[in-house]
Each structure stands twice: as structure tokens, then as C-alpha cells.
Amino acid sequence: MAKILTMELFGSDWDTGIVLSNSAQRRDLMAAYGFAKAELCYSGFFPPLHRDETFFLVRSTREQTLRDLPNVMAGLREDGETPVLTTRAGSRNG
Question: How far is CA 39 from the centre of its chain?
């Protein structure tokens, strides 16, 4: 939803983020996040963890995001996620 709102409200052309190497290497996780590309952006000492770490820039164009969003949503449902809908009165699922 955040991706859709960002594109709609702010006219964004890119969806970007930064992830640690262990996340970037998991294709299932990258697909769930809906990112098309991952590129090395930093490798070296990372003070918050007190160790060397590798980060990747993850990104998708507007077109890639719109194309992939239906598959991402379907994947969430296949993983057992049931969408929770809230009506104006506040009741759940109808």
C-alpha cells in the first residue's frame, strides 16, 4: 500500500531501499518486497553492529512496481495472510 500511495500522492518514479546482504541474497524476500534490482552500495565497518557489513541498494522503477504488485499481493495471500478489512464503523472483515 505504501508503494501505491507514494506513486499516487507524490508521483514517484522509483521505489528504493537499503538492505543488508543476507536480505538481498534471498530471492523470496526480495520478491515479497517487490524490488526488481539489488546492487552493492557499501561494504565496510558498520558502527551500530560493531562489525563489517555489506549493504545493497534495492530499487524498482514505477513500471516494474506496477507490473509486479499483483504477484506480490497474491504471494502474501498464498503465505496464509488473510487481508483484514476495517469498515468505517470499525468492524473487522465486513
Answer: 15
DSSP 8-state class, residue 92:
B
Alpha helices in the chain (DSSP H): 2-10, 21-24, 27-33, 62-78
CA distance 12 to 39: 20
* Alpha-carbon span 2 to 72, nearest angstrom: 13
pTM score of the predicted model: 0.61
pLDDT in tens, the chain (94 residues): 777 778 888 888 888 889 988 888 888 888 777 788 889 999 999 999 999 999 999 998 888 888 877 877 777 676 555 544 444 444 444 4
| Secondary structure (3-state) at 58 | strand
Q: Residue 68 contacts by C-beta under 8 Å, 6 or more apart in sequence?
A: 34, 36, 60
